[in-house]
Specification:
This protein is an alpha/beta fold and 269 residues long. It has one domain: Rossmann fold (3-Layer(aba) Sandwich), CATH 3.40.50. The protein is built from 9 helices and 14 strands. A 6-stranded mixed β-sheet has the order 6-7-8-3-9-10, with helices on both faces. It has a 4-stranded antiparallel β-sheet with strand order 2-1-4-5, with helices on one face. Helix 4 packs antiparallel against helix 5. The longest helix has 16 residues.
Length: 269
């Protein structure tokens, strides 16, 4: 396994968020992290990306402690999109995406044609090719999110770690980004993605990890993880799980309390 959590304890104070946590990320697959708010998803992906130092244990990247990797070398191999990226409001979209090429620069290698092509390709993949000259501050929230996704695509890393990459996106762009991530996986890239949408996770993930209170409640293929009793335990919400009528993947239907049918509210049974 190329990316492994070995007896990992993580936290931001005296109380750990994850304690003696163990996980193996399969290479060449899309692993999706699921779970209720506060269960440890973002904390875990930060540690996998080297953005959070473990209190105990290690993250191993290709059988080598992640902390032992030089920053530039790690950045060429691994790209990370945080949940709330810093906003460079005064930059143009093109200049923001250019940052993705910085790990490939050195004293002996300055900006080259392949860097320009990588940026242009990333803008095209995210539907931003017409907005390259626009200031980031002038973009909508969804466009800003796509600009950040373009940045990590321009990085051309083998491992992509994305914390809620479809946050702020409308339905069309959510599907476009998930389709794009799947295309990258089919090209051999390894992805770790934090999602809240269980049905998109069921459709696109190869490997699901369902977290609950800092521990793995269940992991594996979507059909084995997205079962009603597991979801109810993780989220505290009664659900029904049926087959997606298009693709046969698990389709999670929350029962809730009220529904509106033809303008009339009815209590769910």
């Amino acid at each position: 396994m190329p990316l492994v959590c070995d007896e990992l304890t993580l936290g931001y104070g005296s109380t750990p968020v994850l304690h003696r946590f163990a996980l193996q990320i399969p290479k060449g697959q899309m692993t999706v992290l699921l779970g209720a708010n506060g269960c440890g998803k973002s904390t875990l992906v930060k540690a996998l990306a080297g953005q959070l130092t473990p209190q105990q244990g290690h993250v191993l990247f290709e059988q080598r402690p992640l902390a032992d990797w030089p920053a530039a070398e790690r950045a060429r191999r691994m790209a990370y999109l945080p949940q709330y990226p810093e906003l460079f409001a005064d930059l143009s979209v093109f200049d923001l995406v250019r940052y993705g090429r910085f790990p490939h620069q050195a004293l002996h290698r300055q900006w080259q044609l392949e860097d320009e092509q990588a940026v242009q390709t990333a803008l095209q993949q995210t539907g931003l090719e017409a907005l390259g000259a626009r200031r980031v501050s002038a973009l909508s929230g969804g466009q800003q999110q796509r600009a950040w996704i373009a940045l990590i695509l321009a990085q051309q890393a083998e491992y992509l770690l994305l914390d809620e990459p479809i946050n702020h996106l409308d339905l069309n762009h959510q599907i476009a980004i998930m389709d794009l991530l799947t295309a990258l996986r089919l090209q051999g890239k390894t992805l770790v993605v934090v999602l809240h949408d269980l049905n998109l996770a069921a459709r696109y993930a190869d490997h699901l990890v369902l977290l609950h209170q800092g521990k793995i409640l269940r992991q594996g293929r979507p059909q084995s993880v997205l079962q009603a009793h597991c979801i109810e335990q993780a989220y505290g919400q009664p659900v029904m799980v049926v087959a997606d009528p298009l693709y046969g993947a698990p389709w999670v239907i929350p029962k809730g309390r009220y529904v509106s049918v033809s303008g009339h509210e009815h209590g769910a049974s």
